[in-house]
Structure formats: structure tokens, C-alpha cells
Write a structure and sequence with these properties.
The protein contains twelve helices and eight strands. Strand 1 and strand 2 form a beta hairpin.
Length: 284
């Protein structure tokens, strides 16, 4: 059952020229439109980091990690014996979630993060949720003291995917994560102005490529298989991931706590001191 957004529109949408181009391409060939759409679906946008994030990056110990054919930029803040892993979302970067690090460092935690393939200062042009998850597993090989993980947006789904494939942590925090991969796909198709016919062709292609049904990698479905404690944080005014997502995940994750905020949206929630205090209280 897809998640409905009655009055909210995604914060990001494709430019008008792209929407018009896809409308023409779909009219000519829905199959071709679906192939081009998949190419874009796996291509994150690299947004310019603001000065505040660059400052946070300079405060980190940085190193490069080899992962598959990519060079991955990693970050370390603090030097505590217990490590917390931060996982950014789609088209994000480590420094976007690293505002949480200062308060965690003050509590004695080391905070580590990475720029996923095709994100931030890591190389590559394309990636996907499962590759995010595989990189999380690789991070634990490098940092065996990871005891908890905080995932933002799609990074939350990738985190749970990693947990189901051997990522060992005691606690998990999800911030603004969408519940349904099917909803993500249809939302993307709406942004580029293609019909549900193209979305269905994309779904068929993706399921064949990954040998999994789309719902198998939906966070609300994966949550049913996880039993570690979870804190689910979500803003009621989030236009990138509907707040209904949080309720669905919480319902399916038996050992979870749900905390809702207001007027913070999808990204400002990462910089809110009260939200970070919720995380610290949960980790303790």
C-alpha cells in the first residue's frame, strides 16, 4: 500500500526542461523512458557544502578507504572508546549529519562517518541503497568498536539493510527515513514527470537487477526482522519523507520508540540540539 501525501509536495523536483523531455521520450517509448529514468535514479546530486559544514569537516580526522572501485572519504571526530556511526542520506554527505558529533563527543563518544560512493568527496557517479549497506558493513571492519548507528533519510534504510546482513550494533537511530521503496520510486517518477507505466517498467527492471522484490528492501518491511532497540525521529512537516513513514516503521519495529518534532523539516532536524539530546538519552 503506497504512502499518501495529501497536501505535501517533494522539496526537490526536476527542472522543467527535463520534465518536458521525459514526457516526449515516454510518448515515443515508455521502455526507453524507463531506462533513462533508472540511470537518473542511481545518480545522486552533489550539492555544494555550506561554510558551516566545511568547518565541521576541518575538525575531523580524515582518511581514504578503498571500497570496490571507489575511494571513500571517511571522517572521525573525537577519540572515545565507543564509536557511533553516522550515515547520511541520498544526495547528502557526512558533514550534513555531523552537527550531531559535537554533543556526542562531549558525552565521550567517538563519531565516525563517510561520504558514500558518488557523494561528497568520495568518487563515483552512481550508487544505490544496497551499496550504501555494503559500505556500512565495510566500515565496521575498519571500526570494530561501533556500538550504535544513526541513519538519516535513505541512510536509515541502508543501515537496517546492513543490520540484516551482519552489521552488529546495540542500538539504531533513524531520522526522517522513508518507509517504502515503492513510494520512493513513484515519488521520483512524479518529479521527472513520467507515468505509473514507466514506474512499473522501472520496478520490473530493478527487481531483475537486484534479484529482490522492491518491498523486500522497504524499511517498513525490513523493520519486522530487527529486534535491537531503535529510536525513530521524524518531523511532522517533513516534505521529503512523509511523517506517515515514521508511524509505519514504528508499528513494525517491535522494540522502537517514536519521537516527532515540528517545524524542523527533513534537514534542520539534524542540527537541532533538543533532537540530539533525545539521541544521547537513548544511547545511554
Amino acid at each position: 500500500m503506497p504512502i499518501k501525501e495529501a497536501h505535501k509536495k517533494p522539496a526537490l523536483t526536476a527542472p522543467k526542461w527535463m520534465q518536458k523531455a521525459f514526457a516526449i521520450i515516454e510518448w515515443i517509448s515508455p521502455f526507453l523512458a524507463s531506462r533513462l529514468a533508472i540511470y537518473l535514479f542511481f545518480t545522486p546530486i552533489r550539492f555544494k557544502a555550506p561554510a558551516t559544514e566545511k568547518k565541521v569537516a576541518k575538525q575531523a580526522k580524515r582518511r581514504v578507504l578503498k571500497f570496490k572501485n571507489n575511494k571513500i572519504q571517511t571522517y572521525e571526530w573525537g577519540s572515545g572508546k565507543q564509536s557511533i556511526l553516522l550515515v547520511h542520506g541520498w544526495s547528502g554527505r557526512a558533514t550534513q549529519v555531523a552537527h550531531i558529533a559535537e554533543q556526542l563527543n562531549a558525552e565521550g563518544y567517538q563519531v565516525i562517518s563517510f561520504d558514500a560512493p558518488a557523494h561528497g568527496y568520495s568518487n563515483g557517479r552512481h550508487t544505490h541503497l544496497m551499496e550504501f549497506g555494503e559500505l556500512i558493513l565495510r566500515m565496521q571492519e575498519e571500526y570494530p568498536n561501533i556500538e550504535a548507528v544513526i541513519g538519516h533519510s535513505m541512510g536509515g534504510a541502508a543501515t537496517v539493510y546492513a543490520i540484516l546482513h551482519g552489521f552488529k550494533v546495540n542500538k539504531c537511530v533513524l531520522i526522517g527515513s522513508p518507509a517504502s521503496t515503492s513510494w520512493i520510486l513513484h515519488s521520483f517518477c512524479e518529479q521527472i514527470n513520467v507515468t505509473t507505466k514507466v514506474a512499473e517498467l522501472m520496478k520490473i527492471r530493478l527487481e531483475k537487477k537486484f534479484e529482490k522484490e522492491i518491498n523486500e528492501i522497504s524499511l517498513e518491511e525490513m523493520a519486522k526482522q530487527v529486534d535491537i532497540p531503535a529510536l525513530i525521529l521524524h518531523d511532522e512537516d517533513d516534505v521529503d519523507a512523509p511523517v506517515e513513514s515514521a508511524h509505519r516503521i514504528h508499528k513494525n519495529w517491535k522494540n522502537s520508540k517514536l519521537v516527532l518534532t515540528k517545524k524542523l523539516g527533513h534537514r534542520r532536524i539534524l542540527k537541532d540540539a533538543v533532537v540530539t539530546q533525545h539521541i544521547i538519552d537513548f544511547l545511554k
